[in-house]
Amino acid sequence: MAEAHGSTAAGAAGVGLSKGDTGRGAATGSSVIAGGGTATAQGVLEVEGLSASYGPVKALDGVTLRAEQGRITAVLGANGAGKTTLLRTISGLVRPTAGRVLLNGEDVTRSPVEAMVTKGMSHVPEGRGVIAELTVDENLRVGSLFRGKVGQDEFDRVYDLFPRIKERRTSTAHTLSGGERQMLVIGRALLARPKLLLLDEPSLGLAPRIVAQIFALLRRLVDTEGLSVLLVEQNARSALSVADTGVVLNLGRVVVTDDAHRLAGDEDLRHAYLGF
Ligand SMILES: Nc1ncnc2c1ncn2[C@@H]1O[C@H](COP(=O)(O)OP(=O)(O)OP(=O)(O)O)[C@@H](O)[C@H]1O
Ligand SMILES: [Mg+2]
Fold first, then answer.
1. Where is the composition biased (Low complexity) (predicted)?
2. Tens digits of per-residue pLDDT, 191-213?
3. In the sheet that 228-233 helps form, which strands lie side by side, from edge to edge?
4. Of 11, 73, 142, 210, which one is least surrounded by beta carbons within 10 A?
């Protein structure tokens, strides 16, 4: 079930998360995109009419959305809405039955997963998968093997971003807390300096304070490095507190796309689809 962990998760970390002060002025206020809207910022990711099925189950039904440069786009919806399938289809793990995926304008719809990584897309799946018997450092190094040439400076950068992971670099992964594991898998995904990060339910089961830390870090990367994030969450309240734009999915279809702040203020929509 959708569970809200706190109204200002990102703010609780004590990090400035103001959404209007970091060069994002141009498209703010024109971000209603569903139905051929007027957003002007560059779409790093454009998803057009994407459909996907598992046998007779139609999990995605003509989904259209975009993730813009230097923004966090939250995809929200209840269990079974199609959020995970959307990320898996974008990153090439599930074959779409219709529609297109464009990455920086290039049609990558049927590109293999490895090609997506080299083109700048990194997918952090749900479940925080790590190799339990290996240390934190070994997990990062194994993860880097799938991400092209990764220099030592990239490992140092990940450790700087996640000091807690640095402290635990020689611990075996099975001793990590849920939050530390989540940081490890995000750090692993950042090794290849992706332009677009796909995140599947990073907050699931974590304490509000840890969620706040993780979201604050994402906000910082987006604001300072121009990273683009597509953030899938059932935890709509926290996600909308850090996102620029929200997309609500229901039964495989986009119900609404709007500015995150406006979505959070829409009581009817919140009650109908977002669980808070
Ligand atoms: N491997 C699969 N085989 C068959 N059906 C699947 C499979 N994966 C997902 N589905 C179905 O597709 C639909 C969308 O599932 P999906 O996992 O994308 O939803 P979700 O929004 O990520 O849900 P949750 O919030 O529970 O993670 C659901 O009806 C689900 O039962
Ligand atoms: Mg899911």
1. 1-16
2. 988 999 999 999 999 999 999 99
3. 121-124, 196-200, 228-233, 72-76, 245-250, 253-259
4. 142
